[in-house]
Amino acid sequence: MTIKKITEETETCPAQRLLKILSGKWKAEIFRLAVQSPLRFSMLLREIQGSNKQSLAVALRELEEEGLLEKTTIRLKPLHIEYNLTEKGRALLPVFEQLEGLS
Asked: What is the pTM of this model?
């Protein structure tokens, strides 16, 4: 099998795609928490031990760019921002659950 063929198969395999997307620091944990409820930045800082503002901001932005999370601004005082799974993110739940079952 050629390297090109392996790469093409990896790109079409949902499990491989999910692993690639969630491979960054804190992304898998953010995704796991987003399954349970909408996320707030301050909650993530408390829940994810060892995280910091910068690394969480980068991970959230990348998950948003991948289309797995959507950012919603709630116009209250003070302003609140929530992150929720998108349809694309929910579509990956069965694969994520299978990967979690391997541990």
From this structure: 0.77
